[in-house]
Amino acid sequence: MTDTQSPAPAALAGIRILDFSHLLQGPFATQLLADMGADVIKIERPGKGDLFRSLTFRNKWVGGSESPNFLAWNRNKRSIALNLKSLEAKSIIMEMAKTADIVVQNFRPGVLKALGYGYEDFRAVNPRIIYCSGSGYGEDGPYVDRPGQDMLVQGLTGIMAATGQADAPPTPVGAGFSDQIGAMNMVYGILSALYWREKSGLGQEVKVNLLAGMLAHQNQEMVMALNFNEDFKRPRSGIGHPGMDAPFGTYPTQDGWVTIAMSPYRTLVGVLGNDDLLVYDDPEKLFAQRDEIWRKLAAETGKWTSAALMEALLEADIWCGEVKSHLQAAEDPQVRHMELVTSYEHPRAGTVKVIAPPVRLSETPPTIRKPAPLVGQHTREILREYGFAEEQVNSWLASGVAYADEARE
User: Is 224 part of any domain?
Assistant: First the structure.
């Protein structure tokens, strides 16, 4: 699917983004916009690029050289590598800003501004520009100098204390959840600002932070805690939420695990075939004795295979599902039906398997047109587009103001 063009128009075609972001939050946001057709120009450090290019899981590299972390969040972008501390690089970027629509960055507060790339700097050359900043804890306050990393924010906002079992340590979510929520909020803010600009002709500054995002996305838990002045208490069993009663949770089978959500308890007991469990069929008991009930239900589900239990539960209209690993999820029949696993060709990594864009539009579908770029892969191409003379471009490349992966140009 590399460098192919969809016959359908792209929803954000003609929108140009100057992307200073790195790691996960900002790059995921700009990838979502790029999938919808925006021209995302990723501005990277000469030679080194985005920090995620050098970080990976278990020291595994796709194609022997490329970070899966970077490949996950940077498709459909072009890379230009510039030395941001150079005055000449600043003149290049401000020339680009004159026709850009959006700037995205997630450096620590004040870092880009100190280099001359704050909102006011961009607005001075383009009043229509939308400048989106992502941070860990906002732009000021007692935590402004703290590192705003995903797991740290999970710990601060209650989700870690509410996840897992009571006798276990607080449990982080098994993905970069805070960062991904932050990315979604970036897109939400940027698209809102774009719509306002269509009516007013004016750009604006958008600020997103992980702390606020994680609290907002736990609103039902926060409303419960705040209004009853009582924290949730984690169960000691496989109950799936600290505020829920039995049978809500995960249950063992002979060959795996299944999940059971909000379902009539009496109906579930009927499927499992042990009427002795009906003694717990009371709303107060189902919460107060939920750990005990879970253990007894688990003893019954453990007599079934996952497939047989799923068939019986679905037949009884019980809300249930299998528990699958990432590789098993990729082979799930519904995942395959929706073609949610796809791939692109990368100049170094070869075929890279990825997850397809999650949003579908009937008239302007998102597409994967480009692989994640190499550092400075498009430096010369982008500078040419902005009308800089070849001699000038060569001079910048020679002096280190700019950097290009010439082998891939």
Answer: no
Structural tokens at position 78: 């072009």
Q: How far is CA 93 from CA 34, 104, 121, in A?
A: 20, 13, 11
What 3-state DSSP class applies to 66? strand
Rounded (5°) CA angle 174-179-181:
95
Q: Which residues have CB under 8 Å from 10's CB, separation 6+?
A: 36, 37, 364, 366, 367
pLDDT of residue 360: 84
Residue 19 backbone zone (phi > 0: left; psi -120 to 50: alpha; other: beta) = beta
| 349-373 pLDDT tens trace | 999 999 999 888 888 999 999 999 9
CA 6 to mean position of chain CA atoms: 24
Q: Collapsing DSSP states into helix, strand and coil, what is residue 259?
A: strand
Q: What is the CA radius of gyration of the chain?
A: 25
| Domain match, 150 and 266 both | no
In a domain, 233, yes or no: no
Q: Give the tens place of pLDDT for each residue, 162-204.
A: 999 999 999 999 999 999 999 999 999 999 999 999 999 999 9
User: Do residues 31 and 354 lie in contact, with contact meaning Cβ atoms separated by under 8 Å?
Assistant: no
Q: What is the pLDDT of residue 407?
A: 54
Considering its fold, how many domains does the chain have in total? 2
Let me know whether 163 and 63 are in one domain. Answer: yes
Residues 289 and 398 in one domain: no
Q: How far is CA 27 from CA 41, 51, 66, 88, 260, in A?
A: 11, 11, 16, 25, 35
Q: Which domain holds residue 192?
A: 16-217+341-408
Pairing state of beta strands 350-355 and 130-135?
Answer: unpaired
Q: Is residue 105 located within the same domain as residue 196? A: yes
Tell which of 330, 364, 382 closes a domain: 330
Q: What is the pLDDT of residue 408?
A: 56
Task: Using the predicted structure, report yes or no on whether residue 235 has a pLDDT greater than 50.
Answer: yes
Cα 136 from Cα 114, distance rounded (Å): 18
Query: Do 183 and 87 fall within a single domain?
Result: yes
Q: Is the pLDDT of residue 1 over 80?
A: no
Is there a domain that residue 275 lies in?
yes
The C-alpha angle with vertex 74 and arms to 183 and 343, in degrees rounded to 5, equals 115
CATH number at residue 270: 3.30.1540.10
Residue with tokens 């929520």, as numbered in its chain: 181
